[in-house]
Amino acid sequence: MKELLQRLSALDEGASAALKIITFFDTLLSQRAGLEPFVRGAAVLSGWPAGFGHPLHQLWIRVDPAGHALPPICDLASVADWPHLEFDDGSGAMVWIERGGEPNGNDSLTLERLAAGLRLTLERVSPMDLDDAGALEILLSTTSTDDVRRKAARRLRLPTDRALRAVAAPPDVPAPAGMRSTLIDSAVGTVLVGVIEARSTIRPGRGGVGSAVSLRGVPTSWQEALLAVRIATPLWPVVDWDQLGVLGPMLAASEAADSEPPDLAHVAAVLREPWGLETLDALAGADSHRGAAHVLGLHHSTVQARVAQVENELGFEVGPPAGRLRLALALRLYQARHVRFPHSGAS
């Protein structure tokens, strides 16, 4: 397919773009993607915000070209001046691209494929006939209505009146017993996701756990869990958002920054060593180099040799408290910004 796209691009740029659009949405369908990835795809492909409104299901999704959720538009009459397409099933649902200026020839194809993908996905995750994957997707979405959330929670046998937590784990980690879960494509790759009662002690072997929230707050807990799973390590296999304290909001804010502190590039260089992650993790958490050696199960001289290499690369000493704090912050920020999981064609 890549070779065909390259040949078409050389012969006919318009045909190449059209095939790229078709291939993109067909891939989402084959991966059983959720509703928001389809709208995000339309925004990315067109370079303009894209939206989806479904009055019957009270679904309102709107995404900018960078893939970020935007405030929804519920008055579908207001999108009439943009390229748009109304569903032909009598539901009043509509998709649109918020293109300014002259229309683009591929907008119609993008909207057609977007609408087709959303219709098929709605059939799969309809609140009237939910499976676990569809129910979890509804709980994680910022656009789900309270009524639909309650139906999804009941499908998962979760309480609707008690606090819940979202759980995220790498895709190769087995789901813990007692947690209804599914693999889902996220902004950081495919992850295993579940929702548990806040008081539950269920945890994956490695992962992240969001804060305790109401049913409506599950999307927030999900974003917290998604950050927490990225900073999990063999020495800190399960990261609860509540354990992070002020570090959690700091990492979330820093992750969105345009530029990176120089320390992160130096951390990346150390992490290229096969022993890099475990050594930095131990040095950041132990109160001495001997303590780090004990954590790692290595002789003190071995760790000392690593420390010399680490400090030479980082440009500062990691023994003093200030150095350990600087290392810990740089390591966690690097993980939050750069740890990603492979896409495996999940829902």
Question: Any chance you could write out the topology, listing elements then pairs?
Answer:
Layout: H1 2-11, H2 13-30, H3 35-46, E1 50-54, E2 59-63, E3 84-86, E4 94-97, H4 107-125, H5 132-140, H6 146-155, E5 164-169, E6 181-186, E7 189-197, E8 207-209, H7 218-230, E9 238-240, H8 241-244, H9 247-255, H10 262-271, H11 276-285, H12 289-296, H13 300-314, H14 321-338
Parallel strand pairs: 8-9
Antiparallel strand pairs: 1-2, 1-4, 3-4, 5-7, 5-8, 6-7
Description:
By secondary structure, the protein is of the alpha+beta class. It has three domains: 124 residues, 2-Layer Sandwich (Beta-Lactamase), CATH 3.30.450; 87 residues, no CATH class; 83 residues, Arc Repressor Mutant, subunit A (Orthogonal Bundle). The radius of gyration is 23 Å and the shape is globular. It starts with a helix and ends in a 9-residue tail after the last helix.
Major sheet attributes = 5 strands, mixed
CATH topology of the largest domain: Beta-Lactamase
CATH class of the largest domain: Alpha Beta
Principal-axes geometry comes out as globular
Low-confidence stretches: 4-8
User: If helices are DSSP runs of H or I spanning 4 or more residues, what is the number of helices?
Assistant: 14
Task: Please trace the helix and strand order, writing H or E for each element.
Answer: HHHEEEEHHHEEEEHEHHHHHHH
